[in-house]
Amino acid sequence: MKVSVVCIYYNRNYGSVLQSLALNNFLEKLGCEVNVIPFKDTAGTKEKLDILFDLKLPKLFDPEIVKRKIQEKKARKAATDIDEEYVEGVKLRERAYDRFVKTYFNVPKRVLNRDELAGFVEDSDAVVVGSDQLWTPHDILIGYHTLSFVPNGVKKISYATSFGVKELPTAHIKRKAKKFLSDMDEISVREIQGKQIIENLGVDKTVQVVVDPTMLLTKKDWDEMVPSTRIIDGKYIFCYFLGNNPEHREFAQKIKEHLGLRIVALQHMDEYVAGDGEYVDKVLYDIDPSQFVALIRDAELILTDSFHGSVFSVLYHKKFFVMNRHKDGEVRSTNSRIDTFCGLLNLEKRHLTGDLMAYSEDKILQEIDYDIVDQRLHDSRNSSIAFLKNALGIGE
After folding, report:
1. pLDDT tens-digit profile of 24-39?
2. Number of folded domains that form the chain
3. Helix (H, G, I), strand (E, B), or coil: what is residue 396?
4. Are residues 196 and 235 located together in one domain of the fold?
5. Is residue 351 over pLDDT 70?
6. Beta-strand (E) ranges in the chain?
7. What is the pTM of this model?
8. Do the beta carbons of residue 158 and residue 189 sit within 8 Å?
């Protein structure tokens, strides 16, 4: 079976690259010939106008969004002016990403034009889109991750795709979403909230909530791709924060003092965070996605606001805590995927909210019953595999 995959393999984000790799690898394990579509989700003229009127203009009238964008821009400008380590470090990180993609993804060098997409997939048995936040309002308007280019006769399947928001913001976006979802042959999403969005749109399709592609693979599978040698000698706490939340850094310092372990961190991931190095003992930049997993594997404790940071902590049976990157009410909040993940695996106590500094030493030292977690993950993984096989028509 020939399967073409829509994913953001090119995105310089550890989770995005690893989930893309996991989906491709698992499809190959099922015996599929996998072709990653070499296209970056650029918008055409019509799509740019839709984005302008549906998304950009409304944000200009939201003072909180405008304030945040100005602050982020000033921080980046200040960083490039005065923080040479940051500038050179980001370059090292980007080169590490690019080396990894060249090694693990067999993607043609030439990126397709939009009008070439249909021809690229016309001899495929199926096109699979997934995973990650590929159905955001912005993506729905662009119309690539929606598989609108796929010709008739080729199956259209979503695997663990996420909307990234609690609800779609405008009537226009809702209409476009209902149209493309109704045209899908098989639909699965990563969060319960995503299923609710589809049901509220009135789409007459069965929707299954499945595990992220990274969880389709076992620890043994990941061990084959992750370097066996340690990156950091000795015991350490690994901090992987994508958001700009000072209280998360303060909490890390509290645990550091309590456990007597040094902190190793990857910094300035989604944005430049002034003073981010003040709580860290060892800063790393030249780290590719497989080394990112190795850092989690070898840590004594992981502190993160990242979904995939949590996933790999579980796969490697690590003690971890995950915090919300954004407030629940924020437009850009992606907390629902953490809620679904922790609820699925009986890990609600590892999801910290509220006043972090109020958590007791007993809470910090509490062990995780991985027998229960593993059983739940095993069941969820099997039901997700069954969805994928059924959607592709494998084993019928």
Report:
1. 999 999 999 999 999 9
2. 3
3. coil
4. no
5. yes
6. 2-6, 33-36, 126-129, 155-158, 187-189, 207-209, 236-240, 262-266, 282-284, 301-304, 319-323, 351-352
7. 0.89
8. yes
